[in-house]
Design goal:
The complex is a heterodimer of chains A (about 240) and B (about 200). Chain A has one domain. Chain A is about 60% helix and about 0% strand. Chain A contains ten helices and two strands. In chain A, helix 4 crosses helix 5 (about 110-115) and helix 9 (about 145-175) packs across helix 10 (about 210-235). The two termini of chain A are about 35 Å apart. Chain B has ten helices and no strands. The chains are: A mainly alpha (about 240), B mainly alpha (about 200). At the A-B interface, helix 2, helix 4 and helix 10 of A face helix 2, helix 4, helix 7 and helix 9 of B.
């Protein structure tokens, strides 16, 4: 089984640069980013697994090799409207609606804070890309392996998304407000105050522009690290350190 | 809110891209060029206004009376997708040469976050039918403003000398961030005073 590459090498936000809207919009507080990532993983895993199971119920053409997970990319522009595609959209949006209901029940404040971005998970570029038609065409009848692979791949991509969101939201909240907002547990009120920064934070980072800025620098740094690693591999000398 | 207020709010103050952060991918990652920008924004504005109207109808006549508001997301996603599909078929039938010149993938636009986001914002704002239509058009205009500014910045940046690790998308994102700061100048209270309240 191929190792899923969605976590580092094909990290959806930092390396491939898709799913940018939530990454820029809901990273003002760490807790928002946490719930958003949780929602994305929930929708992605359930949609892909149920889609694989439903496809297995159909009579699929035999004699095809199982397709390995392809790297992420921008698929939106080439998509055309078909019944299968509408069905996939329907699945994704239903799971999104269930996540909205769950969020409203367990974290009503968070639900109000995330607002429409929770509903937008249904048409998040990452979800759309992973369940798109072109990918499914080459896939054979869903077997246990296929479902397992779908599960593994969605968890890897979702974790990659979560890590990028965490990094961006940590930078934005620590520098922009001097706090780290987490769950309230017991006597811990849920907010960590970072000593000196909270007195005079760089508030600009909390505004929408800050999301774009952090995202841009994260993508740049990801690329820089990629460059450095590639150069090290090419030179294959231990003393070739980072530039 | 008056119609002028809606237009100013949704095109400048609450700009879809720069203030709500919706539809970021086509703005920073899509193909450049002014012709593509104009045709994409026109198609987006059309789709947004029709979808906002459809969202208003769905909400008023089906979801709210039957108490089915938890089904909002699937209903809106499917309606936007179907409207985009219908528009594409209609455009192919009636003005095939336009489609060839502009080359806008309508179905692709349907799945950018901006369209669904505008529908959700319009429905949550509790606007009536005409207002929803105007919200869609104004948001489309806002999308055009942001997209054309970003395209112009991109074209300018291509000939500049920049660090290689920032070239391309990272730099587009950073310039979008700076533009978002600039758009903070469109303050609601300031515009409201300028136009004598709405």
């Amino acid at each position: 089984m191929t190792r899923p590459s969605g976590f580092i090498r094909n990290n959806p936000v930092a390396a491939v640069l898709i799913g940018l809207c939530p990454a820029a919009a809901v990273t003002g507080r760490v807790i928002d980013a946490l719930w958003m990532s949780l929602g994305l993983v929930f929708v992605l895993v359930l949609t892909r697994v149920s889609e694989a199971i439903l496809r297995g119920l159909n009579k699929a053409p035999s004699g095809q090799r199982p397709s390995r997970p392809e790297p992420l990319r921008h698929t939106q522009s080439s998509q055309s409207l078909t019944a299968g595609w509408l069905g996939r959209l329907f699945l994704a949006s239903c799971f999104t609606a269930s996540f909205e209901v769950i969020l409203q029940a367990f974290a009503p404040d968070e639900s109000a804070s995330l607002g429409i971005y929770v509903s937008l998970i249904a048409i998040n570029c990452i979800v759309l890309d992973r369940v798109s038609e072109q990918r499914a065409l080459g896939a054979p009848k869903a077997t246990g392996t296929e479902i397992l692979r779908a599960l593994q791949d969605s968890i890897a991509v979702g974790a990659g998304f979560a890590v990028s969101l965490m990094v961006i939201s940590l930078v934005r909240e620590v520098l922009g407000a001097g706090t780290i907002t987490l769950f309230p547990v017991g006597s811990f009120g849920g907010t960590v105050v970072v000593g000196n920064v909270s007195l005079e934070p760089a508030r600009a980072l909390i505004y929408t522009g800050g999301g774009f800025l952090c995202l841009g620098y994260l993508a740049g740094v990801a690329r820089l690290l990629g460059h450095v690693r590639r150069r090290e591999r090419e030179q294959s000398r231990p003393e070739a350190g980072p530039v | 809110m008056s119609l002028l207020g809606i237009i100013l709010t949704f095109s400048l103050v609450d700009n879809v891209v720069l203030s709500r952060l919706l539809g970021v991918c086509p703005c920073v990652g899509g193909p450049g060029g002014m012709r593509v920008t104009v045709s994409t924004s026109a198609a987006t504005a059309l789709l947004m206004s029709l979808s906002a109207l459809a969202g208003w109808a769905l909400q008023t006549f089906i979801l709210a009376p039957l108490d089915l508001e938890f089904l909002r997301t699937p209903a809106f996603v499917l309606s936007v997708a179907c409207i985009a599909g219908l528009l594409e078929v209609a455009a192919r039938r009636m003005v095939p040469q336009l489609l060839r010149v502009a080359g806008v993938p309508l179905v692709g636009i349907a799945f950018n976050c901006a369209t669904l986001g505008v529908v959700l914002i319009a429905v949550k704002g509790g606007f009536n039918a005409l207002q929803s239509l105007v919200v869609g058009l104004a948001a489309g205009a806002g999308f055009f403003i942001a997209l054309s500014l970003l395209t112009a910045i991109r074209e300018r940046l291509e000939v500049e000398k920049v660090p290689s690790w920032l070239r391309g998308l990272p730099l587009h994102l950073i310039s979008a961030g700076l533009l978002a700061y600039a758009f903070m100048a469109f303050d609601r209270a300031f515009l409201s005073r300028l136009f004598g309240g709405w």
